[in-house]
Design a protein that fits this description.
Layout (H helix, E strand, L loop, with lengths): L34 H9 L3 H24 L14 H11 L5 H15 L2
Helix pairs in contact: 1-2, 1-3, 2-4
Length: 117
């Protein structure tokens, strides 16, 4: 089985089922924020915008840590990444403002898995 169940750190959400098909699940909290919000916060220099972007970045790091702990592979989904995670999120979200931050996390994982099967 290519994928195993794994939990998000604080939310204990399951990402993949053992049948290698994406499982439907409820996204709560910051994962439901839009990429448009991320792009807006990153463009602003106000203290509140910087804090919001920081919280979003912390959320995605936690999501990836959960994947590292419970997903298949080396234990580091970012290993061998040519571009930094911040830059990757900036580029993804700039082109897809309507997507959720959860979508960004999933796409990052899927892209990394395609490159490093």
């Amino acid at each position: 089985m290519r994928f195993f169940h794994f939990a998000l750190l604080a939310l204990a959400l399951m990402l993949w089922s053992t049948s290698a098909q994406a499982k439907e699940y409820t996204v709560t909290g910051i994962g439901g924020f839009s990429c448009g919000e991320w792009t807006q916060y990153r463009a602003e220099s106000s203290e509140s915008a910087i804090m919001r972007a920081g919280k979003m970045f912390s959320w995605i790091q936690g999501f990836l840590t959960g994947y590292n702990a419970y997903g298949p592979g080396s234990g580091d989904i970012r290993k061998g990444t040519d571009v930094g995670l911040l830059s990757w999120i900036d580029n993804y979200c700039k082109d897809r403002p309507q997507k959720t931050f959860n979508n960004a996390a999933l796409e990052f994982i899927e892209e990394r898995e395609r490159r490093n099967p």
